[in-house]
Amino acid sequence: MPGARKPRDPALLDALDVFARVPYAGETWRVVRDGRDPLQGSSSGGRWDPTLFDVLYTSLAADGAVAEVHFHLSRQPVFPSRIRHGLHRIRVKTVKTLRLPDLEAMVPLGVDPVRYREILYEPTQAIGDAAYFLGFDSIIAPNARWSCNNLILFTDQIALADLEVIESREVNWTEWRKKLK
After folding, report:
1. Burial call 25-48: b when 16+ CB within 10 Å, e when fewer
2. How far is Cα 113 from Cα 106, in angstroms, rounded to an integer?
3. What is the predicted pLDDT for the residue at 139?
4. Is the pLDDT of residue 1 over 50?
5. For 64-105, how does the pLDDT look when each residue is reduced to its tens digit (9 = 90+)?
6. Which residue, among 93, 72, 100, 101, has the nearest Cα to 28 in the 3D structure?
7. At what angle do helices 122-133 and 10-17 cross, to 10 degrees?
8. Residue 176: φ, ψ to 5°
9. Which of 135, 142, 77, 130 shows the shortest CA–CA distance to 105?
C-alpha cells in the first residue's frame, strides 16, 4: 500500500542519532517544470522519501540539479521536448542537517556505493524516514548523477521564510546535454 511506513530499524535509528545536527546556510539549485512552484515539495517516493512526507530535492551545484532531472526524463521512450523546465537558485537556511558527505559515510547505514546510481531506493528511503523521525530538517548526501552533493529538505520541518528563490532561468536541454559528451 503506498504511503504505508515500514517499521523503523532500531540499529539505523541509533546509527543516525549519533550524527550531529548541523546548520546549513547557502545556495542550492532545483529544476522543476514551468508552472510549478520551485519551493513546493512532494512525496514522490524518490531516493530519500518513502512517500510519507514532503521533500524538496535540490542540489548544491546547478549541473547536479539538471543532471538528476535529465536522468529521469531520459528514461522515457522519447525525451519530452515540449515541456519546459526552469533551473532555480534558492537561498536556504537549515538548523538540523544530517551530513552524509560521501558514499563511504553511507556504507554503515546500509548503502552499497557500487549500486548507488541505480534506482534501488529502499536503503536511502529508510535513512530519510529515520532522519525525519529523529528531527533532522534536511540531508546533505551525494548526487547520484553528478559530482556534487544534494540537499534534501523536509518541507514541514523548514520554515518557508528560510527558503528564497533568488534566480530562475530556463533549462536548455540541447545545450546542457553537450556536457555529457
Report:
1. eebbbbbbeeeeebbebeeeebbb
2. 8
3. 98
4. no
5. 999 999 998 888 888 887 889 999 999 999 999 999 999 999
6. 93
7. 60
8. -65, -40
9. 142
Q: Is 6 left (phi over 0), alpha (psi -120 to 50) or beta?
A: beta
Kindly report the average pLDDT of the chain as a whole number: 93
Q: Could you please report the per-residue DSSP string of 74-142? A: HTSSS--SS--EEEEEEEEEEEEEEE--SHHHHGGGT--GGGTTSS--HHHHHHHHHHHHTT--EEEEE
- Please count the CA atoms within 13 angstroms of the CA of 24 that sit on its side-chain side: 27
- In the chain, domain spans: 10-180
Tell me which architecture the domain covering 10-180 has in CATH. Answer: Alpha-Beta Complex (3.90)
Between CA 163 and CA 137 the distance in angstroms is 13
